[in-house]
Amino acid sequence: MATPARGEAQAAGLPPVLLSAIRVIDGISDWSGRIVSWLIIPLVGSLSWEVVARYVFSAPTVWAYDVSYMLYGAFFMLGAGYALYRGGHIRTDMLYQNWSPRTQGAIDAVCYLFLFFPAMLFLLWMGGQEAWHAWDIGERSDQSPWRPILYPFKAVIPVTALMLLVQGISEFLKSVYAVRTRRLYAKRETIEI
Question: What are the distances in angstroms from CA 130 to CA 77, 121, 127?
């Protein structure tokens, strides 16, 4: 069996193949999150260009608004699987943090099975239909005179749903691990606001 990853609990609660699946899925989510994070550079660049063009040269662009909402939308959506991996989504911790790891795992497993997976499958299905239709008709935006293409932007929705589903499988397996072993698979950093 492979060497346990950083912060990973001992492999007593799940078969080795499932533990390997968790490591592979988490690695994919980590890798994709790091790649998606680079979208911030063209986003900042386009907004900076617009500010300079508008206020220094009195020549606003027709494309900056469209580029900014598309890049920010893609950045936000495609980073969702990474946020799930890192534990960055909102959770009501005032109760959850006081529960035992086994109870946390049981609640998480039930929520993943009955809430998360159905919602993500619905998002994948409906987002996929919308994206397919947009690609089929070559959809363009009517919101600006630039009329940028929208179909790549709409394809982000089913890709996001797929990435969340895949990471959700890893999180569900970690929940099962917590139920079976009475300890968390890996201690996550606490993100507080």
Answer: 16, 14, 5
Q: How far apart are CA 52 and CA 68, in angstroms?
A: 15
H/E stretch holding 14: none
d(CA 46, CA 80): 23
Enter the DSSP assignment of 115.
I
User: What pTM did the predictor assign?
Assistant: 0.86
Q: pLDDT tens digit string along 98-144?
A: 899 999 999 999 999 999 999 999 999 999 999 999 999 999 998 88
CA dist., res. 41 & res. 125, Å (int):
31
Domain regions of the chain by residue span: 16-87+99-181
CB crowding 5-31: b at 16 or more within 10 Å, else e: eeebbebebbeeebbeebbebbebbee
Compute CA distances 128 → 82, 113, 132, 146, 155, whole Å.
21, 21, 6, 26, 7
SS3 category, 16: helix
Q: How far apart are CA 34 and CA 83, in angstroms?
A: 11
